[in-house]
């Protein structure tokens, strides 16, 4: 199957898979979809609360976006829905711009994702450096942890307390630590212990579900004074309904930056999840189709009251481990959650907030990638470590847009510095035929000077051309470009200045072995015609012979 094809992979599976094989696989996908729904249920509720919206909106997201992305996506096993990566972004948008702002930002993100896919930009995601993704992922994990301290400790904040960013949340915790509720902490600790220990008991039943059941039972049975979801939120158990919001041009303009952030994060996380899934089932996803589907899913989620969605690595892995091998599993997972929403949602009101905090703490730990973070700090270059730590810090203190923007700028600068240091310009005094067996070097004619350039000629090294000089007796200057893979406009300008310098000093400029891209650039700029086509030679030996011939003709004249 073509990896860049803009066609839902489900359609290709149905068309090209043997019917008998498909009949054997579908029951496995249905079972896997049910299992994944059980995993997704508490996570969707918890992530909605962490995002500052109603609990049911997390389920709306998993249902609508999860179904659409599975139906139209480019991965066999991807499970999409709300993820922890969006929690801090969404909570910030909701706090400052309300639900209308969130809807606008999510729709903008959906449109951007679809355009990225249709323009086949899926492969460009690989240009986001590992240091940046590791840095902001760890930063998001820390902000989630900070956001859960209140519910884990059972703190009570005065009305009107502002807790938008991490600094606000830490300040609020410090100011209200006297309201600490030991009973809430007990419920939270019990939930954490279950989450850690339960996988050793059973891998089939998710620990988060067990923690939710135990936590919900503890509060009434032990008579604990602990806030539950029902104490803080009004839960709507009805079907998600289509709501076409009134979005003004000003609102779209204001939410453009947020929409771009959501789109970029959704693209990165969904495609990373696809890569992980591919490695688990020895398959290949269609990155561009996946982006289109992610865009459709996010637009659908926004119109039905949900929040941003993307591929969820943990739920995708659960799907693979449960035997899911086609997008049918993702569609079943959405349908099962829909049934839960309609028939069982009122029971969600019984879930204690410390249990929700515990689940989110585990999510934060799992997504933090601290192994990769520590490994980079121990082994990477100083520039890479600086980028990692700065992206990490900016994500916590400011926001993801700032973190990614600054991180990318630093990465580009460091890359240019590295590449420019690899580019060198050196002069020759002697030469030897490239294919000659003779190891002794021959001296160049006195009036001929050769400079060899190795490395890309771009704006970061254009000043190196100034190292080229000629003596008063130099009549022919040969520039060997075999080691130049690319030439940009600034490099081209440097060569034009070199030609001008040579012309003013009566020196003939000759080029040897110009590669395809530099040659095309020079031709397009009219430089080849300016210098003369005869002055562009196939190799260094030809160039020296040509210069020697011109010297002889000069002497005979």
Mind explaining what this structure looks like?
- Mean pLDDT is 90; it is low at 435-439.
- The relative contact order is 0.15.
- Helices cover 63% and strands 6% of the residues.
- It has 2 domains: 9-180 and 247-343 and 378-413, no CATH class; 424-556, Transcription Regulator spoIIAA (2-Layer Sandwich), CATH 3.30.750.
- The chain contains 22 helices and 9 strands.
- It has helices spanning 9-16, 19-50, 55-72, 87-118, 130-153, 166-175, 182-201, 207-222, 229-232, 249-254, 256-281, 287-303, 313-321, 328-343, 353-368, 370-379, 382-397, 400-422, 489-504, 516-524, 527-531, 540-556, and strands at residues 80-81, 310-311, 424-428, 430-431, 442-443, 448-454, 476-483, 508-512, 536-537.
- The protein is α/β, with parallel strands linked by helices and 557 residues long.
- The strands form 3 sheets. Strands 3-6-7-8-9 form a 5-stranded mixed sheet.
Topology:
Layout: H1 9-16, H2 19-50, H3 55-72, E1 80-81, H4 87-118, H5 130-153, H6 166-175, H7 182-201, H8 207-222, H9 229-232, H10 249-254, H11 256-281, H12 287-303, E2 310-311, H13 313-321, H14 328-343, H15 353-368, H16 370-379, H17 382-397, H18 400-422, E3 424-428, E4 430-431, E5 442-443, E6 448-454, E7 476-483, H19 489-504, E8 508-512, H20 516-524, H21 527-531, E9 536-537, H22 540-556
Parallel strand pairs: 6-7, 7-8, 8-9
Antiparallel strand pairs: 1-2, 3-6, 4-5
């Amino acid at each position: 199957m073509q990896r860049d094809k803009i066609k839902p992979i489900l359609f290709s599976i149905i068309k090209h898979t043997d019917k008998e094989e498909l009949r054997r696989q579908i029951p496995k996908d249905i079972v896997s979809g049910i299992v994944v729904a059980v995993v997704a249920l508490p996570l969707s509720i918890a992530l909605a609360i962490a995002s500052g919206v109603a609990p049911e909106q997390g389920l709306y997201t998993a249902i609508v976006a999860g179904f659409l992305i599975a139906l139209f996506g480019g991965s066999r096993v991807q499970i999409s829905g709300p993820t922890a990566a969006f929690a801090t972004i969404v909570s910030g948008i909701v706090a400052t711009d309300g639900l209308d702002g969130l809807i606008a930002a999510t729709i903008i993100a959906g449109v951007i994702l679809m355009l990225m896919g249709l323009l086949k930009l899926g492969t460009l995601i690989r240009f986001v450096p590992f240091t940046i993704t590791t840095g902001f992922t760890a930063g998001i994990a820390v902000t989630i942890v900070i956001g859960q301290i209140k519910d884990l400790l059972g703190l009570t904040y005065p009305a009107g307390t502002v807790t938008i960013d991490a600094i606000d949340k830490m300040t609020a915790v410090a100011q209200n630590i006297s309201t600490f509720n030991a009973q809430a902490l007990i419920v939270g600790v019990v939930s954490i212990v279950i989450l850690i220990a339960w996988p050793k008991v059973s891998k089939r039943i998710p620990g988060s579900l067990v923690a939710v059941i135990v936590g919900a039972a503890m509060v009434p049975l032990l008579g604990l004074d602990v806030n539950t979801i029902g104490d803080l939120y009004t839960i709507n158990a009805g079907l998600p309904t289509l709501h076409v919001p009134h979005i003004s041009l000003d609102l779209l303009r204001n939410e453009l930056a947020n929409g771009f952030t959501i789109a970029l994060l959704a693209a990165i996380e969904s495609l990373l999840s696809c890569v992980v899934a591919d490695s688990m089932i020895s398959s290949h996803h269609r990155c561009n189709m996946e982006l289109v589907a992610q865009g459709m899913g996010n637009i659908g989620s926004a119109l039905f009251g949900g929040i941003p969605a993307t591929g969820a690595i943990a739920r995708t892995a659960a799907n693979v481990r449960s035997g899911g091998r086609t997008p049918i599993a993702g569609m079943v997972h959405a349908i099962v959650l829909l049934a839960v929403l309609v028939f069982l949602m009122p029971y969600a009101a019984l879930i204690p907030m410390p249990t929700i905090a515990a689940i989110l703490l585990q999510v934060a730990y799992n997504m933090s990638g601290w192994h990769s973070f520590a490994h980079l700090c121990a082994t990477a270059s100083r520039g890479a470590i600086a980028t990692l730590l700065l992206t990490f810090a900016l994500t916590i203190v400011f926001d993801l847009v700032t973190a990614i923007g600054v991180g990318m700028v630093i990465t580009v600068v460091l890359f240019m510095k590295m590449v420019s240091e690899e580019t060198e310009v050196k002069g020759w005094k002697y030469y030897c035929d490239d294919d000659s067996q003779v190891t002794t070097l021959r001296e160049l004619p006195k009036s001929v000077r050769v400079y060899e350039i190795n490395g890309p000629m771009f704006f970061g090294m254009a000043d190196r051309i100034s190292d080229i000089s000629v003596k008063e007796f130099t009549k022919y200057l040969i520039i060997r470009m075999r080691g130049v893979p690319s030439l940009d406009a600034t490099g081209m300008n440097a060569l034009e200045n070199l030609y001008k310098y040579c012309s003013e000093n009566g020196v003939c400029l000759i080029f040897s072995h110009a590669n395809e891209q530099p040659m095309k650039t020079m031709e397009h700029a009219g430089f080849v015609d300016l210098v003369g086509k005869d002055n562009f030679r196939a190799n260094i030996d030809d160039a020296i012979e040509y210069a020697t011939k011109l010297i002889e003709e000069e002497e005979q004249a």
